Each structure stands twice: as C-alpha cells, then as structure tokens.
Amino acid sequence: MAVAAANCCFFAAAFTGRSITHRLFYTLRTPNYLCSASYNQNPVPVKGQPKKSPGNYPIEKLSRRSKDEKSLSNSVGSSGRKKNERSQSTTSKRVGVEKKGSQGFLADLDEKKVEASDIQDASFLNAVVKVYCTHTEPDYSLPWQKQKQYTSTGSAFMIGDGKLLTNAHCVEYNTQVKVKRRGDDTKYIAKVLTRGVECDLALLFVESKEFWEGTEPLQFGRLPNLQDSVTVVGYPLGGETISVSKGVVSRIEVTSYAHGSSDLLGIQIDAAINPGNSGGPAFNDLGECIGVAFQVYRSDEVENIGYVIPTTVVSHFLEDYERNGKYTGFPCLGVLLQKLENPALRACLNVPSNEGVLVRKVEPTSHASHVLKEGDVIVSFNNVRVGCEGTVPFRPSERIAFRYLISQKFTGDVAELGIIRGGQSMQVQVTLDTRVHLVPYHIEGDQPSYLIIAGLVFTPLSEPLIAEECEDSIGLKLLTKARYSMPRFRGEQIVILSQVLANDENIGYEDMSNEQVLKLNGTWIKNIHHLTHLVDSCKDKYLVFEFEDNFLVVLERESVLAASKSILKGYGIPSERSDDLLAPYMDPVGQNDEHKAGDSPVSDSEIGNKDLHWA
C-alpha cells in the first residue's frame, strides 16, 4: 500500500467501482524514502508493478466499499504501510476535555484569541512533540519472517495523564517509539497503549517524569464552523524544528479515512499538510485543539486539500479506551442501503413522505440480520428522521450522511429504528457491533497465520497480502471474493495456498500459488485454524485437498509427517505453523460443516450503484 523513495512516503487507497479515482494520502517522513508529487523523484515501484512517473502513486484498491465513496490518503507524516520493498530473500492533568452530551467537547470561550504574531511564543506549541518510530512489518508472502525495518518521523501532542495522541499510521508495526519535545535534544521512550486503525488514532504513554516537567496538556475545542481559521502544527519535512501553517475550514462531512478504510466525520482544510505533520494538532483562534491532522488529497485538478480528525472522533476514541481498556472500534448497522429519491420507488414501497432509505442487504454477522429484512425502509434512527438521500440534520442549514449517527455510538449500544415494512410502520431495536470483513484490511497481532504441510503454505487471504502479491498474481476469482463477498459467520476466512516449497513430497504441485482451498477430505474449511484442526485430527491414509474447479491435491499423511522437519530445515523456516495455531481450536457457534466459504457476494449492480451505502 505504500511506496518508498527519499524523505517521505505517501500511501494511497482507491476504492473500486468509481469511474474517477480519488487519491488521498497519508504520508510518512522518513530519512531514507520519498514519494511526493512535489519532489522530482521516481517512487520505487511496488513489487510486480512497473515504475510510475513522478506524481503518479501506486493505488491499493480497498475492497467492499460502495461506489460513491472517495479514497483518502494520509498525507501526514509517519508510518502506514510499506515504506520499504520486501527484502530480496524473500502528566499529571486529566485530558482537557469536557463532554457535551454526545456532541463532542465544550471549550472555554472566554479566553482571548491567539494573535498570529503571538503564535511563535504561544505556550500550546510546547505541547506538540516529534515522534521517531522504527517499524518492522510482517512479510505476508513469507509469513514466518519479518521485512527489513525502516524508520519514520511524525508528530504528537500532550493530552494529560502522561499520554500523547498521534496517528495510528505513525506507529504501525512499531518496534520502538521515541518522542522529543520542542527545544530539547533528548529523546524519550514512548509506549503505544492502543491503536484505533479505523479512526487512525493512537495513544502513547511516556513514563519519564523529566519529559513532563513544565508542560501543560492541550485543551480540546468544539467542532469548528465553515471558514473558521485553523492552524496546523507539527514537524513536517523541510527542517527539524516545529512548523506552523494556517488556513480555514473548507468543509465538514463524513469522509473516507485512508488508513482505516472507514467513513467517519472529517474536517477539510486548506492549510498546508505535509509529510511529518501526521498526528499533529490543528488549533482554532483560541488556541484550542480542534482536531488531528492525518491525510491529504492528491490530484492534478486540486491543491491544498488536507484533512483533520475532529474532536468528536477523538472523544469517541478516548472514551472507548477508558471504558474498555483498549480500542474496540466504531460500530455499524450492518446493512446495505439505497436512496429513495425516486417518487415511484417510494410509492411502490408504500413510503408516504419524502424520506427513508431502503434496506438492500443485511450482513449475516450483524445483529440486524435478526431484526431487519431486505425491503425494509428505515425512516428514523433514535427518533432522528432520515431523508430520502440518506442524510440527517447536522447543524443549522446542514445535513450529513446517516452513518454519522451510527458512528457516534459505541459497540454494544442499542439503537431504535423506525421502519416501514410492507406499508406498516413499526419500531425495532438493533444492537450495534463492529463490522466483520471476510478479507480483513488489517491483521491483528505481529504475525500472519500460516500452516505448512509438505511444503504447501496455507494462509488466510487479507488485503495486505493482496497488496504485497499484486492483484494480477492473486487472480480475478479471489479478488472478486475479497471485494464483494460477505462472511456468513464471525471467524470465517478465505484460506489460500499461497505457494509451494518444492520438495519430493509435492511433485506435480510446485507451480500452484494463490489458490483457495475449499475442503479437506470432504469437509468444508471455515478458517485457517479449522484447517489446522482437520489436519491434526485426520486418521485417513491420504490428505485430500479440494480447490476451485475441482482441482485435487493428494498427499500421503504418514509420509508428510515424516518429511516435515527436513522441509522446514531446508528452507530455514522455524515452525510449521504460526503461534496462534498452537491453541486449541474453537468451532464457530452454530455453524455446520456444509458451509461454503465466501459464497455471499454483493452483486455487480449493487457495487456499481452510487445510491448504495453501507451503514
């Protein structure tokens, strides 16, 4: 997903199904890599792709997104994904926040405005620190090893209680994180408490008392209004000292977050955001923090479009951590919705007024699958009326996407929906939970799962693996499932044979790669842990693997067990399976063995319709 070159990295994500590709980048300031349109250097090509000319960036097509969604990219500095190509071998104060219901933060409006001439000496600048991170990414193609480490720099700021706030992509795959205060030459070790991938936020903790001497945490402010002045502070490339840029708020709406592959409230600004700004605060004229800089929009047709994570999202992230001791995520409703702008469509569905959205699909893993049905029309969410364009009232003279209301809730919250079913109005209750992806965007833990049987390397299909292998080598069938299929139960995975380590036991199968394995000895495979369990418990003479198009791979079980150690030794592999597969297998509740993995695709017509939205 990332491209590397000389002093910073841009990471791009383009959602499939749009006729025009929107590019949003989160950027990473590194001492060794650069790929910025403002620099006349060629980015290093992603494995398997041709070199790009200056200004062109590799795009990772993020899956399972509706067509009307834009792809954003974190332009602000720090880690994200792939800064390097794969190696050849293959305080003491509480957080300054006061809540106003669920709407965000209150601010002390009696404070005087910070004049532009006083910016340099403003005390709040001292709360902004520089982040130095060393990253070591997993190697998804060779899942038993890591890639070569790389370093990056970004920004963070103090929020009290010994904590700092930064972007999640700044400390992704971190092996060491250090921070340095303004005007200081000492770097202090920081611990990552939690990362919120969806909202691209991370919480750091610095134990050293010396680091916090004489400091004050930043105070959070309200959500700004359009045309409000905004000042972005951080440590972007071009120098070592703190940098300040000014602009105005251009737009506030639900925005695609490039790093998290999610849609949350975002603030668009025209202040310059450059590699290294990632994780830095954005201030209003009162010196209050109104958000966190995290990504920019890159296009030949536009310029100076940056994005800030608003305090409403920051508040949700911090409260989630306080409630649960970890980040649990933003919930979803789990339905695919269609706008009801057409009068005939509303009349056919017996919707009497110009409102509501049509339920086109319900995710099987969501609680909504027990409550909602295809063809239902959602007309209200917690007594807030939903318009026929899928929007709800936001502020005076403003409306916003319906999914904004959902993102304000927490996992486990119960929402009351007003629906019309067959012309009858009714109220139903739905428990909100995090969305389950058949092919995940991010892998939890430090190591991808894998299982090696007689040199056959099995691993779950994931977006990082697709990015690393390149789409051409993955194949159209797997890409279609990755983009459009929904899981039937929690824990379901698409398990693939990623490659074959040639040896005497697998003669004739050496050229196989990136093929989905469907069954073992006639039993449908639910996930990689299930496959491991089936192999370990097998008593048959042969291990019979069934792939797409009825392709068979047959191995003699006793021979496989005898040859396992020598194969691993010959390829320098420490273990035949990842550590997570050593734990006892727990079967997904209520699932039978006759389920075919990934067989609930979203149709092309659904993906191609701009009026459809995942809630």
From TrEMBL:
Residue ranges of domain Protease Do-like PDZ in the record: 439-580
Skewed-composition ranges (Basic and acidic residues): 61-71
UniProt keyword Ribosomal protein present: no
Region Disordered, annotated ranges: 44-98, 582-615
Keyword Plastid: no
Any single biological process term in GO: proteolysis
Record-stated family: Belongs to the peptidase S1C family.
Protein name: Protease Do-like 2, chloroplastic
Gene designation per UniProt: DEGP2
